[in-house]
Amino acid sequence: MKTFDKPIQVATKIEMGADRLVIFAGPCAAESNEILSETAAALKEIATKLDIDLVFKSSFDKANRTSLKSYRGPGLEKGLQMLDAIKSQYDLPLITDIHIPEQAAEVASVVDVLQIPAFLCRQTDLLVAAAKTGRCVKVKRGQFMAPEDMQYAVTKVKESGNENVCLTERGASFGYHNLVVDMRALPTMRQFAPVVFDTTHSVQQPGGAGGSSGGQREFAPYLGRAAAAAGVDGFFVETHPDPSVAKSDGPNMVPLADMENFLSMLKESWELGKKYS
């Protein structure tokens, strides 16, 4: 199968779709300055040791939580201040989600990559607003979308004047509270843009924990290796110092203490997969 035409610029000095592995990683939600700082420091040390490109991730607002009572985050103003502090202290590029077009420009003033949540991947106004910031746009494939139909999201971004767009695979709905990853989706979507594999949301069980989402993090290494073999350009991994007390997506996040081994495994698998792809 053919692949995308050329690498994209993710952030200053970081390209994706060429010869280096890009990792998007961090806590699901921006819970506190302390958790963000602890996680960023550990991830930067690991990325330097493994010689991989790191983009730090956390969300100022989780707008699609299962329950109204679930923690959403610190909000736009405070959340951007928290992320900007991490960027300054650790010299790391940032990625975070946006949910409405009006957030795009303000978030882009701090963040390097704008992530479009899976549920919103068809929202034209959101994609266009993200594209017009000039920042890299990372679009997650909706659980309800055919892989080949993601070409239209890519086209919306590119026809709005922005060539730096990538796609993310995070599984498709398979019955209730379950996601399945179809590995055919990866080469299919790589025809249109570089592809990131979301190792942790792919093992999520949406709404499967009685008012919140469950997850099966023990399967993340298996799916990660499979995606590396199929051929991807980067990985998305949510992590937390103690997932058991995380305020969002704890059951599917990788414990921070395990991240060096996890990312080392992904890199080795990716290099082997690249050799044969």
TrEMBL record:
Cell location: Cytoplasm
Biological or metabolic pathway of the protein: Carbohydrate biosynthesis; 3-deoxy-D-manno-octulosonate biosynthesis; 3-deoxy-D-manno-octulosonate from D-ribulose 5-phosphate: step 2/3; Bacterial outer membrane biogenesis; lipopolysaccharide biosynthesis
SUPFAM superfamilies the record matches: Aldolase (SSF51569)
Keywords, sorted A to Z: Cytoplasm, Lipopolysaccharide biosynthesis, Transferase
Its EC number(s): 2.5.1.55
Domain DAHP synthetase I/KDSA intervals: 8-271
Catalytic activity: D-arabinose 5-phosphate + phosphoenolpyruvate + H2O = 3-deoxy-alpha-D-manno-2-octulosonate-8-phosphate + phosphate
InterPro entries: Aldolase_TIM (IPR013785), DAHP1/KDSA (IPR006218), KDO8P_synthase (IPR006269)
One Gene Ontology MF term: 3-deoxy-8-phosphooctulonate synthase activity
Gene3D superfamilies: Aldolase class I
NCBIfam families assigned: KDO8P_synth, PRK05198.1
Similarity comment: Belongs to the KdsA family.
Protein name: 2-dehydro-3-deoxyphosphooctonate aldolase
The organism's taxonomic lineage, starting at the top: Bacteria, Pseudomonadati, Bacteroidota, Cytophagia, Cytophagales
